[in-house]
Amino acid sequence: MAPDDDHAASAAGAVGRGFDAVATSYFLDVASDLPRTLRAVSQLLRASGGLWANCGPLAFPSEYGAFALSWAQVRALVIAAGFELLSERQLECTYTQLPWHLERTGRTCFFFVARPRPTRDTSTVV
Asked: What domains does the chain contain, in order, with CATH numbers?
């Protein structure tokens, strides 16, 4: 799945909450429509017990047409998309490394684990 991939988003709906886990890396900052991307990830996970692990920077490269969001803004969108954050932390990650050139590029990344918030079954409420 790639951010903004219409085929992947429709496939996510067709698969319908079948995966126990989804892992994404260097993924969120290249989505031009982040709320739509978050909904697609949610549709891939089992409603009860599915987990999403993400690790990546918030670089938001201009060639993807995205505008920069802070971690607080991305976090709020993740929660608004129906996720419950179980763990979150900031990490320093190696993006590229060329040891023979003594060169290394690092990124400040945000790692989190989330799951879809359980929905309340109101059909049995009297």
From this structure: 12-117 (3.40.50.150)
